Structure formats: structure tokens, C-alpha cells
Protein: 3-isopropylmalate dehydrogenase
Amino acid sequence: MTQQSFDIAVIGGDGIGPEVVAEGLKVIDAVGGDVTVRTTEYDLGATRWHRTGETLPDSVLSELRGHDGILLGAIGDPGVPSGVLERGVLLPLRFALDHYVNLRPAKLFPGVTSPLADHVTSKGLDFVVVREGTEGPYTGNGGALRVGTPAEVATEVSVNTRFGIERVVRDAFARAQARPRQHLTLVHKHNVLTHAGHLWRRTVEEVGAEFPDVETAYQHVDAATIFLATDPARFDVIVTDNLFGDIITDIAAAVAGGIGLAASGNINPTRESPSMFEPVHGSAPDIAGQGKADPTAAILSASMLLAHLGLGAQAERVETAVAADLAERGTASRATSQIGDAIAARL
Ligand SMILES: NC(=O)c1ccc[n+]([C@@H]2O[C@H](COP(=O)([O-])OP(=O)(O)OC[C@H]3O[C@@H](n4cnc5c(N)ncnc54)[C@H](O)[C@@H]3O)[C@@H](O)[C@H]2O)c1
Ligand SMILES: CC(C)[C@H](C(=O)O)[C@@H](O)C(=O)O
Ligand SMILES: [Mg+2]
Structure:
């Protein structure tokens, strides 16, 4: 078999980011075989900002574009004003690299304890959220007037384009079509957000005509949170906007065994720019530096990266090793590096 080699950019970032990414890299190394993964580390986040005042320099962005994929830990730090790094590093990466599919699987692995009752989880919990990644209220379309006065006004306009919705909806339908259940739920709030909501609803109806095998459903986002907590088995693929997707994927992570297990991919399906894989969680300042963050989400994100590179067999091996580790782990608390070592050892 021919040796395959890939160039991966690594952004540890802030807080527990570098701690969990190190374990993801350990696992990628352990996959070995005829795959060579060269990694280049990029220093982005609070440390760089304190040192230089920079968030995401153009030169770094253009170097990142030259890689086959990006593995990221987390961005955000309590020592930096809120939003500076999130809006200065993380979102510019997702926007500039046109990561319009933010893919967030939620699956309850055997042996993992969910906060949901057994009779709820016995029906299964295995769905994927396709979160739009480049639009909605995230675009920065807004502003503030008369700041600090009693007459202050602030706006954050949600931007929804037919182009942006259609491409992510088509991707979600294709994913639903390829899954055994062939079911897609649109989550929005078209009873109140009538302009954006109806555009999403019509787009789902129209694109859906191209996927006659896929059954569709609709849920308002508030009701969707009920069913995520009481009957997650009803979901197969969920498609939703950027902000609703952010919120429901933290709930999805919680019911699937915890935020330490939830992986994600910021994907550019056209492959015109590298996709970026990262845990759903953030920099967890409350536990940073203590070696107790769960690196499983970062390891599963690394596995999604391998799959994206066309290394499906290797990705499956990682997922199998993670499943075995989770089944054995029980409620024992283990250090970040011990979990990474145990999963790598299974490979
Ligand atoms: N993609 C990202 O880079 C990303 C995602 C979410 C939040 N953030 C940023 O991270 C910072 C902290 O945000 P937050 O506190 O709202 O969310 P968070 O996800 O960092 O933490 C929420 C809770 O989950 C726990 N937690 C998170 N990851 C864990 C892990 N791997 N193992 C065990 N426990 C874990 C934390 O200890 C905390 O109690 C903020 O600056 C935020 O903007 C970044
Ligand atoms: C940090 C923040 C910008 C980010 C988001 O809202 O997308 C995070 O919460 C996530 O879920 O990746
Ligand atoms: Mg989030």
C-alpha cells in the first residue's frame, strides 16, 4: 500500500485546549501504519494576544489555508475581554475558511451514563446536528448606540441568505439519506422569527423534493429542547441555524454523557479550504491546568478529521478504541493524559 501523508495545523488555543489536543495528537500518532501526519503548531489565543495584541494575523490565516486539515482545542480566556478571541480568532477561522457545515454528532456510547432516565435512553440516542456555520446572528451585523446611557440600544442582526441556507440544508439531506433512518428535522422558531424561519422552512421543502426517501419533520427550538431531554430517539439528523445549533448541541452533549465527549467538525464540503475539527466544549477555565479535562471529545474530533481526510478505516479504529475505553472507564476519574494513553494503547 502506498504511504499517505497529510499536513495538519494544530491550534491548542486556551485553557484546557492544549491539554486535550495533545491527547488527540497522541491518538493520531498511534494510528500509525501507512499514514504519516505532519503537524505544525500555531500559537493563537490569549497568550499571543497578551504578547502581541494580535488575534488572527493574515499571514497565519494564509498558512493555515495550505494544510489538509486543522485540529483545534478551544479559544476564549477570562483574562481577555469576552468576545475578543471568540470574534477575533475562532469565528474568523470558520468564516474565512467557509465552514458552512458545523457537524456535531451526539451518540450515547455503551457503558456511558446519561443524566436521562434508562427508559428514555433505552430507545437509543444517535443523531447528528448539522449546524449552519457562517450566518445567523454570528456575522457581526449589529452595533450599539449611546453606550452606557439609559437610552442605549444594541442590535445583533441574524443574517440568513437563500444561498447559505440552501447549501447547508442540501448537505443535511444528503447525510440523512445516507443514514439508515433517513429522517431530517428542521429546528427553528418560525412562529416568531417569521422572515428567517419561513425562508428556512421553504428551503427545506424545496430541497427536500430532491430527496424523496428522506422523511422531514419540524420543531420549534424551544420544543426541541424538551424532546432532546425526554425523547432524543426521535432525532436522526437535525438541521438548524448557527445560534440554535450552538445551544442545542450543548444539550445534546449533556444527554449523550457529557460535554467532555462531544466532538465536532467545521466543514467546508467543497474542499476549497481546510476543514477544522474541535471539541464542542470551550476552554473550561474552571478546570484548566489541573490535568483533569476529559480529552475524549478532542480524540473523537481527531477521528472525524481522519475520516474527512479519507482515512475511514483509521477513524473507525479510533472510535472503536474510544468506545472500548468508555465501556471500561465507568465512573472512575482519570487524568487527561491517562485517558489519552489508554485509548492510544488500544490502537
Ligand atoms: N469552540 C471553542 O473554542 C469554544 C466553545 C465553547 C466556549 N468557548 C469559550 O470557552 C470559554 C469558557 O466557556 P464556558 O465556560 O461557557 O464553556 P466550557 O465548555 O468551556 O465549560 C463549561 C463547563 O463544562 C466543563 N467542561 C468543558 N470541557 C470539559 C472537558 N473536556 N472535560 C471536563 N469538563 C469539561 C467546564 O469545566 C465547565 O464547567 C469562553 O471564553 C467561551 O467563549 C470556546
Ligand atoms: C465560542 C463560541 C464562539 C462558539 C460558538 O458559539 O460557536 C462555541 O460556543 C461553540 O459551540 O463552538
Ligand atoms: Mg457552543
Q: What stands out?
A: Residues 312-329 form the longest helix (18 residues). The chain has twelve helices and twelve strands.
